[in-house]
Please model this.
Amino acid sequence: MIMNQPPVDVLREKVDSRYALVVAAAKRARQLLDGAPKLVDVESDKPVTIALWEIGEDKLQLERTKTGIK
Model:
C-alpha cells in the first residue's frame, strides 16, 4: 500500500497545533505553485501533499511569530 500523505500523528509532532499545520502547508503549497523546488521525492504532484511530506520529513523550518508562521 502506497501512502498518499504522511500520518497525521507524525505531522502533529512537528507543529504546536492543527491550525499551524494547515497554515504552514498552505503557505508552502503556494510557494510550490509559484515554482519553488520540491524538497522531497514523492510520487504526487499535488502541492499540498508535497508540502505535508516536506513538513513530515523535517525539510522545512517552521517559525512561529506573533503575526503568524513565517
Observations:
- The domain at 8-69 is CATH 3.90.940.10 (Eukaryotic RPB6 RNA polymerase subunit).
- The first helix runs from residue 8 to 14.
